[in-house]
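Annex B.
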Amino acid sequence: MLDLMLPLHCGGCDTAGTAWCAACDRELAVRPDEPHVVSPRLDPGVPVLSLGRYAGARRNAIVALKEHGRADLRTPLAAALRTGLDHLLGWGVVDAPVTLVPAPTRRSSARRRGGDPVARIAALAARDETVAPVLRMRAFTRDSVGLSSAARQRNVAGRVRLTAPVAGPVIMVDDVVTTGATATESVRVLQTGGAAVLAVLTLANA
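Phosphoribosyltransferase: predicted structure tokens.
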């Protein structure tokens, strides 16, 4: 009866009867050689590491979480982020302890989405890491969807603020890196505030 009233659909492929199917779970799984270094159009000055392309089940899950309230999809996305962090630690790319700083979001977007999805994914993924949601977008920052690379850069220039200092090594965490404008401005703000930013780790790159 509950399935008839509130039918389940996979957040990755829309298959009925399940919230997250085995096929999408395999597609989202982090391979032994991931995350990979990617090169967004704007270089934040630190490595940008991605767990996969912004396509297929990965893209659908991120969109469903952010735009359609599918909070249950935080769990598989956080599991992928955890695996990526474990790989970086295992390879010696980063050393523990490290602080995870979620990418900034607009306050209006966070309210509409019932909270900051990236911060909540980072909190679920963290094990020994500290999660510090200290980046905020200033008021009147536009949504970057549909903006060109140059427009995105102008949109966020001077718009990211640091609400508290972060000590020690930092990995900035994001859901999707496109042009790299937000990552570049965020890394600059963190470094200006005294943080040692090691890398940007993203669930997907577009």
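The first strand starts at residue 36 and ends at 38. The chain has a mean pLDDT of 89. Further annotation is deferred to the next reporting cycle.
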